[in-house]
Amino acid sequence: MTRQRIHAVAWWQAEPRRLDRDRAEVARAFPDLVFTDPGQERRTGRKTRAGQGGWSGVLPRWPFERPEPAGLTALTGQNGLELRVDYVPAYPMVMPRLWPLDPEPDFMERTQSTWHVLPIGALCLLQSDAAWDPDTSLVDLLLKAAGWRIEYALMRAGAIEAMTTNGIVTDDRLDHLLHAPQQDPPRTPDGPDQQETSP
Known about the structure:
There is one protein chain. It contains 5 helices and 6 strands, in the order ααββββαββαα. By secondary structure, it is of the alpha+beta class. The chain has one domain (49-199).
């Protein structure tokens, strides 16, 4: 009896339409991000292996539909979040990893769920892995990442004690904190509908 060899199929070969969709949507929404082709060799430590593809670059400071608050640059500076997006072998069934590069959370921030960062350093943008819908646009995650950068700055300034549950993409509850320079920021009232205790 002969054994059949099982060959793994890369996600971009199994889901070519999803790859095309991501490339079109991200290029339209965030044209400054640079795409890395799947299968391109990548060094990790001493090993070189084929990567899964991804994106890198700097997100816009305020890519949301409502007007940018006047005091935002006093809080965050001119630039948005610099990040790297890594697709994973099981994409799109499993969400990609988004790694903040600038600002990059420190070790202590990675140990506390209030910062929405996983212990490995990637962003925690959903309540749980089960909350990921394989049909979700990568653009939606990138918008959440842009919002994370602003909430991160508010956390560092002491204006909030925990990041919000759903982010600020469509929720303007924290906008009032961004309208004035953040010299001595006001505190947001605590409450179950305002703050989150775990990612």
